[in-house]
Amino acid sequence: MNTVDTVELLNHLIVMSKNGERGLRAAADEAHHADLKQSLFEYSHFFGDAARELQEAVRRLGGQPKEIGSFAHTLHRTWMHLKVTALGRDEDVILDDIEEEERLAESRYADAVREETPPEIHALLERHYELAQKHHDAIRMWRMHAHAH
User: Could you tell me where the DSSP H helices lie in 87-118?
Assistant: First the structure.
């Protein structure tokens, strides 16, 4: 993969990470259980940190990093807020929505790790992929716990 393609790949991950950070913060705002709220905020920090690291990697490669998430995701967050509000702040709805987003994020990192990137970029992507898996597993556990009650 050449430098331009690597920068493009990283910029796609930056947008996804920015969306994830904002989506998880919005979900945390909607959650009413303190432990879930805290977990979602902590996971949002992972995406914020990932976006900053990816932006720095793009700069090191001589590229211009993306700075914001997508407008479509802003609309999605608004829809989630309306849906959750209409359903009485149902945490199952929040967790279902977040789990789907996290599944997609994990999948995108899995795809990125399979690309031929410079060793330092590959190591960064592997670390992010492992953390995304860990956090996605935690969201799945929250969902299973919520659906069991």
Answer: 91-114
Span 82-123, pLDDT tens digits: 555 555 556 777 787 788 788 888 999 999 999 999 999 999
Name the helix (H) or strand (E) containing 116: none
| Cα separation, 20 vs 103, whole angstroms | 11
For 4-39, the pLDDT digits (tens) are 999 999 999 999 999 889 888 888 888 888 988 898
- Alpha carbons 14 and 105: distance in angstroms, whole number: 11
CA distance linking residue 131 with residue 17, whole number of Å? 12
- State the amino acid at position 137 in one-letter form: D
99-110: b (≥16 Cβ within 10 Å) or e: eebbeebbebbe
**Token pair 């149902």 in the structure block, residue:** 90
**3-148 CATH fold:** Ferritin (1.20.1260)
